[in-house]
Design brief:
With 277 residues, the protein is an alpha/beta fold. It has one domain: Lambda Exonuclease, Chain A. The chain has twelve helices and six strands. Strands 1, 2, 3, 4, 5 and 6 form a six-stranded mixed beta sheet that branches. β5 and β6 form a beta hairpin. α3 runs antiparallel to α5 and α8 packs across α9. It is globular and about 60 Å long.
């Protein structure tokens, strides 16, 4: 299946086939004042704010699919990142955290999600990630989608400014987000369908896409990680991006810009762990 076809199918999903939107619309229409239970508040606060950031060393992140491979190897080998972000940009990232908390409270209270911030690990590809949410497909919808009763779906939320949101409405989901979801398809073969929701950060409108697994994208994810594994096993770094050689483009915001163009000595402790692989 081509990417063009996958995007077309995602855009053409009827409202009745959406996994989240119809049920959330109905729930919000009955709940003008949101009063989540203490259990929901505790779960979301613990998941989003009370759990330490996962250790990304010695693993490749699902959310980094398609990203700079040199940067991914730096993350893997525990090169210490240096944040190029100022206070305003950090505030933008915090905004994303609280957006997720709002949605997760909604979807837990509405009974649409069963769990949130689900850690996922797939040892064969040294892959880890955190799934925004997992829910159970209602029986009537499972029948309509040709899925077994009590089938699970994955849920991912992305914030977008108005310009990006209009692009998504016109062109469909971002390829990087599709690759992230397909990394989860590889790691979680028990989940056959995904809900990808984009919220316009300027207006709070949202658009949901239903994503089914595409064998071509799954192979692309596996091939990328096998390539990264090869660099690690050979104690090599992927090539520097052309833009980064000129200190332009992604180089300006890369947390590893300080190390990227310098001589790199492979960490001795990584060699020990590499031998255990």
């Amino acid at each position: 299946m081509s990417l063009k076809r996958i995007l077309s199918q995602a855009r053409s999903a009827s409202d009745s086939d959406l996994l989240v939107t119809p049920r959330l619309d109905e729930w919000l229409s009955r709940n003008g004042n949101i009063e989540p239970s203490q259990e929901t508040i505790d779960r979301v606060l613990q998941a989003e704010l009370g759990t330490p950031q996962r250790d990304r060393t010695m693993t490749f992140s699902a959310s980094s699919r398609g990203a700079c491979r040199r940067q991914q190897v730096f993350w893997f080998t525990d090169v210490k990142p240096v944040s190029p972000l100022n206070a305003d940009l950090h505030a933008i990232f915090h905004d994303g955290t609280f957006r997720h908390m709002r949605w997760q409270m909604w979807l837990l209270e509405a009974g649409i999600l069963d769990d949130v911030e689900v850690f996922q690990k797939y040892d064969q590809l040294w892959l880890t990630g955190t799934i925004d949410g997992i829910g159970t497909i209602p029986p009537e919808l499972a029948d309509r989608l040709g899925m077994i009763r009590d089938a699970k779906f994955g849920w991912e939320l992305k914030g977008a400014n108005s310009h990006k949101y209009r692009f998504v409405l016109d062109q469909g989901p971002d390829i990087a987000h599709l690759l992230q979801i397909h990394a989860y398809f590889v790691a979680r073969p028990d989940i056959d369908v995904w809900s990808l929701c984009y919220e316009n950060k300027d207006t709070q409108e949202w658009k949901e896409f239903v994503v089914r697994p595409d064998p071509k994208l799954m192979k692309e994810v596996e091939a990328e990680i096998h390539d990264l594994q090869g660099y690690v096993l050979n104690e090599e770094l992927p090539p520097v991006l052309d833009e980064c050689k000129k200190r332009q483009g992604p180089f300006k915001t890369c947390p590893f810009a300080h190390a990227c163009l310098s001589t790199y000595d492979w960490p001795r402790e990584q060699r020990k762990i590499r031998k255990k692989r």
